[in-house]
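BUG: 3D viewer hangs when loading the predicted structure for this chain

Environment: internal workstation, default settings.
Expected: structure renders.
Actual: progress bar stalls at 90%.

Input used:
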Amino acid sequence: MSDDSLDTPEREPAGPETSANEKAYWSQNIRLLWTLMTIWFVVSFGAGILFRDFLDQFAIGGYPLGFWFAQQGAIYFFILLIVFYSVRMKQIERQYDLDD
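Structure tokens produced before the viewer hung:
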């Protein structure tokens, strides 16, 4: 049995076109991550600590808003960020033809 009988597809080396496509994909991916991490920091540190006194002027369910954000609101917001990240990454992967 010769090696020619094995039907193994050979990959062509990636050209400059693919490299530019990959760079654009990763650039968009990293930009999205930095944006969401900044929002995450502002919500967790800002709403729960820095802006707590201002937010305590308002109430949700009888609790001061600053306290609510520090205890529960930030968690809900983080879940929304995860869902947004997942949806947005699917769009980015489709844009660069990397989806499954």
